[in-house]
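Review the following:
>
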Amino acid sequence: MLRVDDEKLRVTCNLFADHLERQREIERFWLDIAGLPETCLCKSSVNVYSKSSQKKRRNTLPYGTCRISVSRTRIVQNVYGGIQEIGGFTREAWLE
């Protein structure tokens, strides 16, 4: 199991324009799901409606999406190694 200190993790939320009124609620939702403190939260990005969309989003992804990142090479190498082991393949580009 990989153990990562909370302060090494970053959470970025990707929201839709109709989420702006609930931005803090949605960010809190993702932090709670991940079990992370607010100090891990980065600035959220908001997708504005294009003129062709006519603001007809079908309530898919009611909480937008969330990206959790950690900038530690050792951890990334462990994750890639685990993927290769479970998948039973070797991807040389991941070893560089």
